[in-house]
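Hi R.,

Here's the chain you asked about this morning:
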Amino acid sequence: MHDLSERFEERLGEITAYLDLIEGIESLVRSGVPRLGEGGPAITAQQQRILNSGVYLQLYNLVEATVTNCLDAVSKAAMRQATWAPGDLTAELRREWVRYLARTHVSMGPDKRLEDAIALCDHLIAALPVPEFDIEKGGGGNWDDNAIKKIASRIGFDLRVSRRADQGVKRKIRNDLGAMALIVSLRNGLAHGRLSFAECGQDDSVAELRSLSERVAAYLREVVAAFITYIEEHRYIRAERRPNQVAAEN
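And here is the predicted structure, written out as tokens:
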């Protein structure tokens, strides 16, 4: 499961590299009229703001990628470790499996709905093991700390992070919003055209953006660690069917 952490750190490394770039540009601005190379075009305040706004898009990408990778790890990597019957899964994860196989969340005609129901019935009659499946994450561009906790609860996982990490992303920054809620708001403002890139990045220094990134990274790193523990301890399986419990009984 260390791959889950590695993928997170790789994505975070991209943001750190970008912050290093715009910090260098900010330092040039302080020293006078910055230019791209000797005699090159000047770097304007508008361009600097546009570059700053890119941090919000990258941070939101990190948040959603973390959610996607964690859910994929539950539904795919976990299922590769052993062969589980549908009845071995917790009620919450079994619900997700039925949702995926019967496609209950997809609009379709009666005949197609019947086909999927028969496929589920055939699977149960044949007593086949649970194959890899996708957990429908939804989200609609609104992934913040509350949404992450809610999706974890949906799969039967009581996600807990340290008080420090939780307070770090909930502490109000702007517009009465905490770190992750602010990222969602600004990302959606850019995506839906309510904000220009220059407007989005006009109130930020690189130091503030780096502090924001560090708080989000601290929270997400604990989320990743919690999901790894959830998978390694087979919490997606009913307690009495988990390998450690079965071994103890034998």
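One quick note: The mean pLDDT is 88.

Cheers,
M.
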